[in-house]
Specification:
Elements lengths: L6 H7 L2 H10 L9 H12 L3 H14 L13 H6 L3 H10 L5 E3 L6 H9 L2 E6 L2 H11 L10 E2 L16 E6 L11 E4 L4 E2 L2 E2 L10 H7 L4 E6 L5 H4 L4 E7 L2 E8 L10 E6 L6 E4 L14 E3 L3 H5 L3 H8 L2 E2 L7 E3 L7 E10 L2 H10 L2 E9 L5 H8 L5 E10 L2 E7 L3 E2 L1
Parallel strand pairs: 1-2, 1-5, 2-4, 3-4, 5-8, 9-11, 17-18
Antiparallel strand pairs: 6-7, 8-10, 9-10, 11-12, 13-15, 13-16, 14-15, 16-19, 16-20, 18-19
Length: about 425
């Protein structure tokens, strides 16, 4: 759960004295091994502020890999966990460029920071006053209760015509289920935990997704969701976009029909911290041949798999499926920048012959990938006991009704 910040904590942390204290604490390791010793020393100099200072320094260190320019930001543990990575928020902000946007679950302002770069005016609202106060600090707007920065009443419906400068940010305390602005686009990010556990049930999100959709019926709406939600059950009339960053699936975004690309109901957006993003939609071709395995096995990016666009990806890159029900692809070439597994041998999955073959090939470091079979890779690796020096990869999947092993060379990038 993390430390429970108070309004006094936020006020102190945002002051000159708090900033100086945070700079001082940067010199402490604050690791699990050193924490008790560090706390004892910090309490001698910072007394009642020690816990808030320590938590803030540790959260900032965690945030560095997720949020750009957040070195001076304030967070709660839960807010940082749910905050959208800057690269993902920037991708969404670019899609909404030029529109006025209201983030009705703004939390500590991670999404607002990117929206303010591309949108003429942005409003953020939340019911949590601590997070709103942190957002005010993070975004450089007047502090809570100081006048024009944060309002506790409904927002003037004409706020976006009020002469605000491009990129201006307004904050408000408001219930996400009670519309309080006439912004062109509404963004929401319902909390994905219920009863202390992560949930994939749309009705158990906070606020519940069905209630959120009812509250903004007829409005242009973008809702961030966990990629594990069953989108087919939602019967969503717009576009479902699955976004990955550096190979990890980060989120799904539901775009209402007014924000969706015509003819597109599924999109995979693959982002990279070092390269250009690329996209794939269900409007792209998906005709692929049925052939025996080629020279390589390719495991598509998770966004492609979650979006149900494996065949579309295969068609784009001249690949085909190992099995129509399995997301592994095969071909005679590997798409640029993608890991390919060069097939050395193919055999029915039986442990004893597989162990013997690995021993014959002097197999050492062993990566095991599975799909469509109920296997624990770590348990299997322990049974196979590879003791050699040559790295190999096992791709274990189901071809028809048969569990099949592809013994592959060390992965390489195309």
């Amino acid at each position: 759960m993390g430390y429970a910040f108070s309004r006094d904590d936020v006020a102190f942390l945002g002051s000159a004295a708090g900033s100086a204290a945070l700079t001082e604490l940067d010199g402490f390791a604050l690791t699990p091994a050193s924490l008790l010793r560090d706390l004892e020393q910090i309490r001698r100099t910072h007394a009642e502020h020690a816990a808030a200072l320590v938590e803030t320094v540790r959260l900032r260190r965690r945030a560095a890999a997720k949020l750009a320019g957040a070195g001076e930001w304030l967070f709660t543990d839960d807010a940082l966990q749910q905050a959208t990575p800057s690269a993902v928020a920037r991708h969404r902000a670019e899609r909404l460029a030029g529109r006025t946007v209201h983030d009705v679950t703004c939390s500590i302002g991670a999404e607002l920071a990117e929206l303010s770069r591309t949108c003429p005016a942005v409003i953020g609202s939340d019911l949590d006053e601590i997070r709103l106060a942190m957002a005010a600090h993070n975004l450089g707007v007047p502090p809570f209760g100081a006048g024009s920065g944060i309002h506790t009443a409904a927002v003037d419906p004409g706020w976006q015509q009020a002469g605000m400068a491009r990129g201006a940010v307004m904050l408000a305390k408001a219930d996400a289920l009670v519309p309080c602005s006439t912004a062109e686009v509404v963004i929401a990010d319902p909390a994905r935990r219920a009863d202390g556990r992560r949930t994939h049930d749309p009705a158990k999100l906070q606020p519940p997704l069905p209630d959120l959709l009812d509250a903004y019926a007829g409005r242009d709406l973008a809702v961030k969701c966990a990629p594990g939600l069953d989108f087919d059950k939602l019967a969503w009339a717009g576009e479902v976009e699955i976004v990955s960053l550096d190979g990890a699936v980060r989120e799904a975004c539901l775009w209402s029909p007014g924000l969706a690309e015509p003819g597109v109901t599924r999109r995979a957006s693959v982002l990279s911290s070092t390269g250009k993003p690329w996209h794939l939609t269900d409007a792209d071709p998906d005709d692929i041949p049925e052939r025996e395995p080629g020279e390589w096995i390719v495991d598509p990016d998770g966004a492609v798999v979650r979006a149900g666009l494996v065949r579309h990806y295969a068609a784009k890159h001249g690949l085909w499926q190992l099995d129509p029900r399995i997301a592994y692809l095969t071909g005679d070439t590997v798409p640029e920048g993608v890991r390919g597994f060069r097939i050395l041998d193919r055999m029915e999955f039986r442990e004893k012959p597989l162990r013997a073959e690995l021993h014959r090939r002097d197999c050492g470091p062993l990566e095991i990938l599975t799909r469509g079979v109920d296997l624990d890779p770590d348990a299997l690796r322990a049974k196979l006991k590879p003791k050699g020096a040559t790295p190999h990869t096992l791709v274990i999947t189901r071809i028809g009704r048969t569990a099949t092993v592809f013994l592959c060379a060390t992965p390489s990038a195309g």
